[in-house]
Amino acid sequence: MDQTYLQTYLRQTPYSDPGALDVRALPRDPGRLAGLVRDLIIHRGEGERFGWTVPRDRLHHDAETRYVTGILRLLAERGAAPLTEPRPPAERFVGTCRDFALLHCALLRATGTPARVRCGFATYFEDGCFADHWVTEFRTPRGTWRLADTQLHHTYTGLDFDPVDVPRDRFLVAADAWRACRSGRADPRRFGVIGLDGISGLWFVGADLLRDLAALNGVELLPWDMWGPGAADDSALDAAHLALLDTVAAARSEAELRELYAREARLTVPEVITSYTTHTGVREVTLRSAPRV
């Protein structure tokens, strides 16, 4: 990979920027940082696993926090302990897989490891399902990219892989999922949000493909954000839409993906997007400045 792109993934985005956070006491090892994040965030569907009832206001609103500065602000309000100390559930941020990935990515960048957020599908939550999921991808000293699922770190037992080295066949980045579905190697009806009827299908794989492309270009959106060529069901996937997404999934280099994102207005995230928020309904959202990178 060109060194220019490595520098890109060391830079914070408007979403990952931790602001004035003092990172001197933080570990630099990706695994230790993953453990730290796992002790700062609780998934909003995990309260029962931890013997804790998630307050309704946190269940509805924490996960609408788009920016790491907002996550850190809520953590500071809920407890005075440094980020390096584990917290009880009541003092944590209540988020989604995207929040685990984004905070991990932010801390990796802040401590000198190139990293990016990836959007795709996990096979390890429910047999036979490809669950909508977000993870971190970081650059190793050997020059390879490795997937890390911070949500799993040190609280999930019985895994047959290291959560800081997720096999590529256990988590499919969105482009791999799109190609598998379009070629007939996978059934798109198996790709979606576990437990929510109707939130699956080729349209949903395409939406994840767009969000993954945006994240690679420095716009790490919420899992329910859409814009431009987004489709809400398979019937909206016309020939032009399919061709555009096929082109994105076929890109094989950083340069090609960035050129596509910069050239094709239908792919570039605009200043105002539509957020299909899970608890507060559909609304228009104006994003912070998100320059192309």
From TrEMBL:
Matches recorded under SUPFAM superfamilies: Cysteine proteinases
Domain Transglutaminase-like: 94-149
Protein name: Transglutaminase-like domain-containing protein
Species of origin: Streptomyces andamanensis
